[in-house]
Amino acid sequence: MTEAKYFLVVRFWVAPEAVAQVSRWLEGGHVTEVVSQPGFLWCRRLNLKERDAKGWSAFSMLYGIESRHAFEKYESNRELKSEFARQREPFEKLMRIERFSGEVDFALDKGG
Q1: How far apart are CA 95 and CA 10, in angstroms?
Q2: Most buried of the four, 33, 43, 87, 100, by CB within 10 Å?
Q3: pTM for this predicted structure
């Protein structure tokens, strides 16, 4: 895995009836489209194995990015963000999303 200096974390909860639909959207092209943006290196999805009070499943997408500059360029791409919002419309009421990002300020590797 290429070493990332900056990370975007997208944590989301999905209603049980929408998990398959959201997974198809993510795996069917959305994640590929995000990772194809300049400076994005890779993505990992985490199944968080937790439920909220409504019984919605929690997941997280972790994106490794070359730099804060690459992330800011992605964030300012209004056309792309509009397209992603349009793609999410069919399940907008069946999904909650929170996002955060930041730079690595501490790291520890095994053996060193």
Answers
A1: 12
A2: 43
A3: 0.90
Q: State pLDDT tens for residues 18-53.
A: 999 999 999 989 999 999 999 999 999 999 999 999
Closest CA to 101 of 36, 3, 2, 10: 10
Ranges of each domain in the chain: 6-101
- For residues 85 and 80, give the distance between their C-alpha atoms in angstroms, rounded to a whole number: 9
Question: Kind of pairing, strands 6-14 and 95-103?
Answer: antiparallel
CATH number, domain 6-101, options 3.30.70.100, 1.10.290.10, 3.60.40.10, 2.60.120.260:
3.30.70.100
